[in-house]
Amino acid sequence: MTNLIKSAPQAWWRRERLWFGLWLLITVAGIAWLWWDAHAWLSGEPSAVFRDTDLKRWPLEVLWWVFLPLILLLQRYLNRSGRHWAWAVALHGLTAFAITALFVVLQGARMVVVNHLPASFLPVVVNDLGLLRYWNYLPAHFYLALVLALYAMNFYREWRAGQQLTGELQVANAQLETRLVRASLDALKMQLHPHFLFNTLNSITSLIRNGRTREAEEIVAGLGELLRRALDHRQESREALEHELEFLRRYLEIESIRFQDRLKVEWAISPKCLRALVPSLILQPLVENAMKHGISKDASAQILRISAERDGTRLLLSVYNDGPALPSDEDLVHGIGTQNTIARLNMLYGDDARLRLRDQLPRGVRAEIIIPFQTNSP
User: Fold this and answer.
1) In whole angstroms, what is the distance from residue 191 CA to residue 281 CA?
2) pLDDT tens for residues 91-101?
3) What domains sit in the chain, N to C, each tagged with a CATH number?
4) For position 305, what pLDDT does the model report?
5) How does DSSP classify residue 376?
6) Which of 28, 41, 195, 289 lies 20 to 30 Å (CA to CA) from residue 360?
């Protein structure tokens, strides 16, 4: 799973060291400017007054630039420590009070310096500001608004990360499911090869015992070509119907040798269906069942009809033989070929596909596959 989900490289605007370096550079430049601007006043020159310096002209709100990284560090600490919400509220409230008090004290200090009062007057000035209701509680409101914004951003970031992780997990899960289905389909498909091979070898053995060695040799040659085609397409879960029919024709050529002139194959294939995608080797087990349970068990049976037609968004495939009705012991229904076909249809199409076996009046059995009509074309 860890190999499937890879984190993307961090964008430059998300690099904290870059932003901290920029903040530090601006802060040092600002302090240097204030010191240079107030150097004459700090040196005690008679003509220099505090009112003319940027220390007086600049608003106190500039201090938020200094507080910002400290607030971010505090917020990160609370997020990582997992403290109880009551503890976090108390800490934020204390911080808001401390920042507000600092602004009030600095405002009082300005007034003391501007009016050339001794430093001992600072508590009196601060108290007078409170009595005159000049205390400004806006810093506390601004701090709390900033904290709420940071909580909202952190919640949104975690939500986005969760959504991204969920999407990546869904993709990885879909890939694993696809591989599992592919492996299951390959396993089911490989069951057909030995099953078909054993049946054909039994036919060859029967021909040799009956002295029909020439026909047996033809079947062996045809079997080699048939297996080569089957192995060439062993990695494909679906293929065009026309390719499936080519394989089926080769198989029926072998069966025609075994049944001689008794087998009559009829094709009812709509040209519109030739490019339709079907599960590979989907018709072969149905045809094999028709030969084994139908035509081979009734000397009068000889017709094998294979048809394909389109019905709106569905593709209808059918294999009909005019042999005896379905066996009552349900050997055909529970056979390897039938169960294999049902399992493959369920994996590829789910509830959109089905296989039906039914008696066809007045005589014969019809196997019908219904799947969605799909092609490789756009």
Assistant:
1) 11
2) 888 888 888 88
3) 16-169 (no CATH), 174-372 (3.30.565.10)
4) 95
5) S
6) 195
Distance (Å, whole) CA 328 – CA 317 = 24
**Cα separations (Å) of 169 from 166, 179, 359?**
5, 15, 48
CA–CA gap between residue 134 and residue 127 (Å, rounded): 10
Give 126's contacts (C-beta < 8 A, 6+ positions apart): 104, 105, 108
CB atoms within 10 A of CB 169: 13
Of 173, 201, 199, residue with least CA distance to 290: 199
Q: Which residues pair with 320 in a beta bridge?
A: 305, 366
Q: How confident is the model at residue 318 (pLDDT cuts 50, 70, 90)?
A: very high
Measured distance CA(316)–CA(215) in Å, rounded: 34
Q: pLDDT (tens digit, 9 = 90+) per residue, 5-18?
A: 444 556 666 677 88
356 Rama class: left (phi>0) / alpha (psi -120 to 50) / beta: beta
Q: Is the pLDDT of residue 132 over 60?
A: no
Q: What is the mean pLDDT of residues 83-111?
A: 82
Q: Does the pLDDT value for residue 135 go beyond 80? A: no
For 32, the enclosing helix (H) or strand (E) is helix 16-37
Q: DSSP assignment, residue 6?
A: -
Which amino acid is residue 296, in one-letter code? S
Rg (CA), the chain: 43
Over range 356-361, report the average pLDDT.
Answer: 89
Pairing of strands 303-311, 264-269: parallel
Sign of the torsion angle spanned by Cα atoms 120, 125, 130, 135: negative
Cα angle 100, 102, 105; round to 5: 110
Residues with Cβ within 8 Å of 358's Cβ and at least 6 positions away in sequence, in order, are 326, 365, 366, 368
Structure-model confidence comparison of residues 307 and 207, the more confident one: 307
The closest alpha carbon to 348, from 185, 180, 177, belongs to: 185
Dihedral sign, Cα of residue 147, residue 150, residue 152, residue 155: negative
Q: Could you list the beta-strand ranges (E) of 312-353.
A: 314-321
Counting Cα atoms < 13 Å in the Cβ hemisphere of 99 gives 26
47-52 long-range Cβ contacts below 8 angstroms, 24+ apart: 50/113, 50/114, 51/114
Half-sphere exposure of 289 (CA within 13 A, CB side): 30
- Name every residue whose Cβ is closer than 8 Å to that of residue 165 and which is 6 or more positions away in sequence: 5
